[in-house]
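Anyone up for a design puzzle?
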């Protein structure tokens, strides 16, 4: 697998995992009454899936963008990745 593809996949999946953990924390600690809203809806699966997708995409792209901005610019430094 090429280095850049592996770089993008690893950083994106790390960001998605962080996003899911934060979403789980928001629901568990009932921040902004989100846990109660999910608990009282008839469509719990849809609510959790929508929350997971939005948090995953947002944090995945943010983590990837941060990794790209902090990526080394020199060829010798980049080969160490």
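Challenge accepted. My sequence:
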């Amino acid at each position: 697998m090429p280095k850049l593809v592996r770089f993008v996949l690893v950083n994106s999946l790390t960001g998605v995992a962080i996003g899911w953990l934060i979403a789980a924390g928001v629901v568990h600690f009932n921040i902004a009454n989100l846990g109660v809203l999910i608990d009282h809806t008839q469509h719990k699966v849809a609510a959790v899936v929508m929350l997971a997708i939005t948090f995953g995409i947002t944090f995945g792209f943010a983590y990837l963008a941060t990794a790209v901005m902090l990526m080394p610019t020199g060829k010798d430094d980049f080969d160490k990745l």
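A detail worth pointing out: DSSP finds four helices and no strands in the chain.
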